[in-house]
Amino acid sequence: MKDTVETQKQLMKxxxxxxxxxxxxxxxxxxxxxxxxNEAIARTYDVEVNDEELDAGIIPSYVKDF
Length: 66
Description:
The protein is mostly helical and about 70 residues long. It is about 70% helix and about 0% strand.
């Protein structure tokens, strides 16, 4: 048990709090970017789709440059 405590103390001396804070800041930025991407993916657009035209292979008028 004593060895464990000594090992833990040694490891704690090697911990750099600035690196931990930098990592937390990076993770926060990544989380914000991920939330922004999720919002963009979740957007819906009110487009009327005629299933019969799609089944017949007719390109809908709202599809440009196809």
